[in-house]
Every structure is written in C-alpha cells, then in structure tokens.
Amino acid sequence: MGKGGGCIFSKKRSTLEASDQDPPNPDRDAPVLSQNETAAATTTAITVENSSSHEVKKLKVFIVFYSMYGHVECLAKRMKKGVDSIDGVEGFLYRVPETLPMDVLEQMRVPQKEDELPVISVDELVEADGLLFGFPTRFGSMASQMKAFFDSTGQLWEQQRLAGVPAGFFVSTGTQGGGQETTAWTAITQLAHHGMLYVPIGYTFGAGMFKMDSLRGGSPYGAGVYSGDGSRVPSETELALAEHQGKYMAAMVKRLLSI
C-alpha cells in the first residue's frame, strides 16, 4: 500500500498469532452468578420495569366555581384541601367564565380575580372523575354565570359524556333564609339531565351540623357560607364543613371507581 494507506500487518506473524490470548467473548467471559444472585437480578429488573410502565395515576376531582366577592372561592380552596387529604385523589380548582362586562363589575365593586386559577372549558369536564360545583344564589337558584356554563354543555348532554360521574354542590347566600338548601336543590336538575350521580353530604359532618351557638351556612345538600353584604368572612365552622365535603367526595369517588 502507499504511505498512510491503511493498517500494515506484520510480515513475521500471522493475524491469528498477533495475541497469545483468545479474542474476547462476552458470553464466555461474563461473571458467573449464583442461583440466588440470578434470581435477585431478575426480580430487580422486573420491579424497575413494572414501576416505570405501571405508574398509578391519581383520581381527579374538579372543583368548578363562580365567586363574585370571594366567599365561594374560600370554600373551594378549603374543599381542595379535603380532597387532597385522601390518598390517590387530587383536587383541581377552576373558575367558570364571567358573563358580566367589566364596567358593570367595577360599578358593583367586584374585586379582581386571581390569575393563578384557570377558567375551565366545557370539554375539560370529561377529564374529571368527580365534580364539585360552587356558586352564589340568585333568588334561591344558581347565579347566572354558573347557569350559563351549564347551558353551554349541550353537546356533552347529547352524547351523555358526563353520565355516571359523581357530583355535588356548595353555595353562598346573603341571608339565613336566602337559599342554603334551595340553591343546591334546584341545581340537581342539571345533574339529572346529564345522568350524573348527585352526592350530598347528609349529616356526615357529625356534631358540627347540629350546633346552634353560632351563625353557620351549609346543609345536608352541601357546604355553604353566609356572605351578608359581602363584608362577612367565612367562619371556621363553614370552612371545616367545606373541607369535610371535599374529603367525603374524594372518598366516594375512590369507592365508586374501585367497584
């Protein structure tokens, strides 16, 4: 060959004689494992494979709400804490779209909403394993913003995409006789047409449902808060009831989906 043209084998030794040792053989030269070591290695490999390919996904409970002055939002955030306390279940907070124009909201002195909470779309509802809807009352039934959101679910209703999904309610009213029960009760029609499963809390909150020594919203239909003229803040009992409802719904979702 010409200079630098490639490898030049020695003229004195053949290629087979270039080494006194046999060429490496991976199968032959691999370390010999004992029976116990082989079994342990196999078990480890299977465990790693299973853990990577069979990750357990948490069940999702969507807490979907409309809150004008923040009272329903307080309940929703505490409700998420209850949902998250159940192993294998996670809560997600969503707002529904606002329907009032900005100038009207300013005249009503409605505080600006936090940008950190996303606005839900109708199509996202089908991703939930359970749903909790929260809203203030308007003459004993849900506020128009939440009603408009339900009215936009026509395609889901036509296809019955939400049928069998457990759902519940929590509310806010301005007065003691303003609709703590009827606001949730009149909303049940929305669930019925979608084929969803209504999950009230009943009296599972225990002694807290019977106390008469302080002002408290909520009913067997779901958690509730009294907002008054908008300046009243939720009491600890009202927040505790909301947390209980989140925990109760998460446990019910987990039980229903394990059947």
UniProtKB/TrEMBL annotation:
TM region(s), chain numbering: none
**Which stretches make up the Flavodoxin-like domain?**
61-249
Which prosthetic group or cofactor does it need?
FMN
EC numbers, comma separated: 1.6.5.2
Q: Which SUPFAM superfamilies match?
A: Flavoproteins (SSF52218)
Q: Which GO terms describe its cellular component?
A: membrane
Pfam families in the record: FMN_red (PF03358)
PROSITE patterns in the record: FLAVODOXIN_LIKE
Q: Where is this region: Disordered?
A: 1-32
Catalysed reaction equations from the record: a quinone + NADH + H(+) = a quinol + NAD(+); a quinone + NADPH + H(+) = a quinol + NADP(+)
- Give the superkingdom in one word: Eukaryota
GO molecular-function annotation terms?
FMN binding; NAD(P)H dehydrogenase (quinone) activity
PANTHER family this protein is in?
Answer: FLAVODOXIN-RELATED PROTEIN WRBA-RELATED, NAD(P)H DEHYDROGENASE (QUINONE)
Which family, according to UniProt?
Belongs to the WrbA family.
Q: What is this protein called?
A: NAD(P)H dehydrogenase (quinone)
Q: Taxonomic lineage per UniProt?
A: Eukaryota, Viridiplantae, Streptophyta, Embryophyta, Tracheophyta
